[in-house]
């Protein structure tokens, strides 16, 4: 069923790139997954185009909230937004502007318990506006990395999502041009023409372009310049200033100041090079439109331009306000071959990074993250069956950790039961989990305990320790070791008198167990083995449960195959131990992977493990706290020794060992 998304914008007219970006997104939204509804404060060409797409449009009283002390108007706006949210059964709200509109939307979202995604399209939004936006938003979409470096977002890094603006490249092909702008403006076919576009407002840098044009006029006979853009009524004095400046420089016939251009494909078709002299743009949509038109670009090196333009390949980046270098770089594109080469490189870069379909997919990915969409790997808490969890750590995944699609994974904590788990889960777990457990995995240092060397540490809990615990409840019988690896523990159990079987997801490990010890070891997941009900007296799973995609289903299957008086042995890291508390604190700042991700999916404490066992039909028999062996060397070893010593003092060791039995028939320890 499609999720309902409410878009709130601060204008019903197409004024600049923000409105164009919203229209492009609405056109390319996956209608099977998301249904759009839009709120606008006034009617205009943008709201009409949205209605033409078949999208409901609701007016609200935002324009009347000009005075922060005008409480009746503010309350009316919030009530109108709440009414739309309830009427359309909105699942998520997306604001397409900054400032007061985010505050109004944020309050409406809090009142209706809906998440807010806000879109920042300005670098120079106010500090307190940014703080309010960070507090009210579940996620903040940035159109350039430059915005994310603002001090005001320092404490909201986890909420930031970089999504570059997108462009419908088909609309900027030369075939899409509806008019011949050169002919309309009486510009000769062989003239060298440079163009610029943007709202006529201070900060767009047109005065520097005019100074560059004065140099170019002498260097390139017959050169022409076309400047198009939106002309706000309150900025007409600035427009007159630009025109007077051009006249005084003797550029009256060279520069043509046009108003808003409805046929941008014709504009780009008419020019040879696009110039972007803005000093204030956080992205510069017209840059990617020029690249989609296969035009070389010259831009001041400010805002998001360095993220768009590959300097020396798709165009040139110039020091801000340096009109002389700006003129020189524009002049370099008199050579048609150079201009064509740069233009085609820009087209390819645009196709790879800024195509509108990629933009729409990225925004929808943000929605899926906020809504915890299962299609994106999000899971419910296996104990509480809720999606109410908070991110506590985000860790980078290196090729040394695992070769997976995701470069970062997040640890979340359930707000109800406290269980910590990776959410969303890496895609490989759904499709090919066995690929995480190759020969290389078993040969890494942290798999050291699969050895038959009696002088080495056999495991974090030595085999004799495990067997002595089990012996208190079961002295013999059928035993299944899940995640048996090379079968060393199974061999020890067989020597103690148990009839043993094993299963491991790794074909490599299962093969070694069969070859070395002749033990019946199956390769695959437990659910695929189809053991008969009540098959085993003992099931052991040491350092396994944290690897399982669905631990509740896993334990339920163990419950099914255990005999009525059967025993379950579990061992795993304790996420409440001092070691993990310290690692979490360090990882909060450096985002390093101290948690064996992505192999360890769930991170248990004694409390959450007991809750999960109870949900699966088990009762706890015994719980012990142990500690893992230290393998680090040098200063790291010294640090770990000190940490483990402190953990012993405060009874916060880093391992859990728990024995459990079927709930209704929990056996007593044998004498």
Fill in the keyword field for this structure.
Rossmann fold; 671 residues; seven-stranded mixed beta sheet; single chain; alpha/beta; seven-stranded parallel beta sheet; elongated; 19% strand; 25 helices
Note down, in words, how this protein is organized:
This protein has 671 residues and is of the alpha/beta class. The protein folds into three domains: 3-162, Glycogen Phosphorylase B (Rossmann fold, 3-Layer(aba) Sandwich); 171-354, Rossmann fold, CATH 3.40.50.2000; 435-591 and 617-665, Rossmann fold (3-Layer(aba) Sandwich). The protein contains 25 helices and 24 strands. The strands form four sheets. A seven-stranded parallel beta sheet has the order 3-2-1-4-5-6-7, sandwiched between helices. The chain has a seven-stranded mixed beta sheet with strand order 19-18-17-20-21-24-23, with helices on both faces. A six-stranded parallel beta sheet has the order 10-9-8-11-12-13, sandwiched between helices. Strand 1 (3-8), helix 1 (17-28) and strand 2 form a beta-alpha-beta unit. The model is unreliable at 445-450 (pLDDT under 50).
What's this model, at a glance?
This protein is an alpha/beta fold.
Helix tally?
A: 25
The low-confidence parts are 445-450
Q: What is the name of the CATH topology of the largest domain?
A: Rossmann fold
Q: For the residues shown, what is the average pLDDT?
A: 89
CATH class placement of the largest domain: Alpha Beta
The largest sheet, given as strand count, sense and whether it forms a barrel, is: 7 strands, parallel
Over the alpha carbons, how many angstroms does the gyration radius reach?
32 Å
Strand order of the largest sheet: 3-2-1-4-5-6-7
Q: Helix content range of the residues, please?
A: 25-40%
Backbone shape = elongated
Total strand segments: 24
CATH-defined superfamily of the largest domain: Vaccinia Virus protein VP39
């Amino acid at each position: 069923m499609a999720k309902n998304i409410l878009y709130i914008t601060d204008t019903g007219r197409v004024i600049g790139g923000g409105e164009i970006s919203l229209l492009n997104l609405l056109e390319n939204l996956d209608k099977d997954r998301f249904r759009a509804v839009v709120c606008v404060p006034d009617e205009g060409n943008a709201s009409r185009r949205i209605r033409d797409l078949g999208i409901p449009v609701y007016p609200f009283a935002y324009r009347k909230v000009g005075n922060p002390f005008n409480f009746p108007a503010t309350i009316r706006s919030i009530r109108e937004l709440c009414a739309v949210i309830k009427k359309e059964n909105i699942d998520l709200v997306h604001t397409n502007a900054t400032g007061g509109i985010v505050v109004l939307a944020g309050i409406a979202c809090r009142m209706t318990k809906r998440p807010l995604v806000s879109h920042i399209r300005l670098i120079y939004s106010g500090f307190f506006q940014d703080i309010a936006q960070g507090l009210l938003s579940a996620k903040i979409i940035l159109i350039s990395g430059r915005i994310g470096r603002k001090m005001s977002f320092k404490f909201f890094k986890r909420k930031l999502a970089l999504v570059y603006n997108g462009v419908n490249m088909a609309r900027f092909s030369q075939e899409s041009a509806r008019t011949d702008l050169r002919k309309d403006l009486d510009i000769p076919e062989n003239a060298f023409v440079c163009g610029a576009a943007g709202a006529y407002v201070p900060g767009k840098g047109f005065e520097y372009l005019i100074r560059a044009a004065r140099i170019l006029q002498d260097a390139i006979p017959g050169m022409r310049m076309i400047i198009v853009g939106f002309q706000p009524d309150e900025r007409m004095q600035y427009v007159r200033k630009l025109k007077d400046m051009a006249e005084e420089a003797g550029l009256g016939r060279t520069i043509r100041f046009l108003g808003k251009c409805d046929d941008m494909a014709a504009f780009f078709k008419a020019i040879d090079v696009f110039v972007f002299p803005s000093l204030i743009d956080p992205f510069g949509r017209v840059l990617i439109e020029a690249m989609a038109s296969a035009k070389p670009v010259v831009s001041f090196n400010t805002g998001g331009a360095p993220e768009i333009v590959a300097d020396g390949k798709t165009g040139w980046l110039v020091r801000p306000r340096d009109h002389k270098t700006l003129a020189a770089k524009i002049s370099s594109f008199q050579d048609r071959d150079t201009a064509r080469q740069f233009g085609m490189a820009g087209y390819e870069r645009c196709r790879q990074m800024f195509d509108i379909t990629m933009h729409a997919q990225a925004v929808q990915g943000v929605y899926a993250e906020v809504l915890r969409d299962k299609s994106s790997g999000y899971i419910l808490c296996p104990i509480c069956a809720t999606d109410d969890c908070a991110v506590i750590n985000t860790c980078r995944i290196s090729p040394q950790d695992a070769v997976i699609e995701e470069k970062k994974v997040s640890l979340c904590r359930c707000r109800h039961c406290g269980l910590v788990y990776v959410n969303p889960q890496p895609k490989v777990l759904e499709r090919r989990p066995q690929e995480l457990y190759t020969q290389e995995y078993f040969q890494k240092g942290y798999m050291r305990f699969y050895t038959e060397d009696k002088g080495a540490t056999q495991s974090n809990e030595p085999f004799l320790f495990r067997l002595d615990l089990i012996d208190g409840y079961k002295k013999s019988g059928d035993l299944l070791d899940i995640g048996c690896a090379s079968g060393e523990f199974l061999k020890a159990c067989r020597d103690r008198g148990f009839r043993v079987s094993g299963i491991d997801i790794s074909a490599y490990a299962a093969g070694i167990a069969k070859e070395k010890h002749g033990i019946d070891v199956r390769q695959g997941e437990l659910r695929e083995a189809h053991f008969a009900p009540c098959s085993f007296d003992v099931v052991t799973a040491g350092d396994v449960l944290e690897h399982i995609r669905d631990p509740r289903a896993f334990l339920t299957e163990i419950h099914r195959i255990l005999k009525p008086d059967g025993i379950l042995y579990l061992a795993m890291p304790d996420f409440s131990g001092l070691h993990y508390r310290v690692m979490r604190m360090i990882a909060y700042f450096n985002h390093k992977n101290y948690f064996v991700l992505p192999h360890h999916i769930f991170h248990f404490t004694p409390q959450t493990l007991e809750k999960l066992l109870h949900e699966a039909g088990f009762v706890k028999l015994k719980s012990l706290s142990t500690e893992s062996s230290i393998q680090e060397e040098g200063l790291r070893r010294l640090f770990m020794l000190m940490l483990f010593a402190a953990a012993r003092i405060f009874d916060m060791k880093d391992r859990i060992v728990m024995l459990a039995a079927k709930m209704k028939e929990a056996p007593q320890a044998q004498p």
